[in-house]
């Protein structure tokens, strides 16, 4: 690369230079007016840090555990679609970078490399993201394949009864390649995309929009022994229900602002969910992480770890496996510096008192 990026945001411009417009728009776009897409990032800028001084920070320990698995820092790789559109090695390159970073990757159900290819690429802890299909046999088969190949948890995405209106994909007539995990089971190539993205057509034809609380977790537990995390929770009501039905963890997420526009930024509802759960299960955070300070803020508001999505794709597009490694290292280095400057020698030392939100500042002025 002509000029090495010095922060994660600069990888986005590099990705834009190398990706076809259709694919760049697919990765970067959100739903409808993209209000929530912007808010996911901007909301972090309205949370201020409250550093402590004269604390021994000569040694910083960023390590933590998720479901009992130790990782080097509370920064995981989120499930994102079709990595081979960004780089020929696809999810295999991302998995190797995750292993090198000593963190957990969540493999997307819509990966362009198979469950088996990713599992055999390197020795690491990884989870598998699941969407529920109208044909339960398809969901059951891929869950069993994930368990057989050493994946340690199922991350059930619950905010997609239908796919959000992603207008850039509609304009571009975004075409999805055949997903190798579903070869012989369901086709994405044969669906008519004359009226827009064939991703929309695929979702309409295959995803189960009748899914309810009453049966989903119970059914999953009947086919797998893996712990189940629920991704896509934004309210205290749903957080409590998730705990009641027996999930092992919750991911606060608005799906990268790709589903329902004008939902709150994920960081705005994180504390609400954490308080509702009351420590019964871990809460992970997804949405808008671009800086180590963002990671710190999410931890201070109660997240056990954060998931990083688009920046990983940008790194992958710009420089393959090395690009993903660089993105993860940048975030870790920034988090380490933020912890040191805030007087937090370990992630356990990051507390709610280290941040102040916009609402708190407004209340203080009344």
Describe the protein in words.
This protein has helices at about 10-20, 20-30, 35-40, 90-100, 115-120, 135-150, 165-170, 200-205, 215-225, 235-245, 265-275, 290-300, 310-340, 360-365; strands spanning about 50, 65, 70, 75, 105, 125-130, 155, 230-235, 250, 285, 305-310, 355. The model has no long low-confidence stretch (mean pLDDT about 95). Helix 1 packs antiparallel against helix 13 (about 310-340). It is α/β, with parallel strands linked by helices and about 375 residues long. The strands form three sheets. The chain has an eight-stranded parallel sheet. A two-stranded antiparallel sheet has the order 1-12. Strands 2-3 form a two-stranded antiparallel sheet. The chain is built from 14 helices and twelve strands.
Q: What are the secondary-structure elements, in order, as H or E?
A: HHHEEEEHEHEHEHHHEHEHEHEHEH
Which spans have pLDDT < 50 for at least 5 consecutive residues? Answer: none
The DSSP helix count reads 14
Characterize the main sheet: 8 strands, parallel
Widest β-sheet, arrangement of strands: 4-11-10-9-8-7-6-5
Average pLDDT level: 94
Round the Cα radius of gyration to an integer and report it: 20 Å
Class derived from helix and strand content: alpha/beta
For the secondary structure, the number of strands is 12
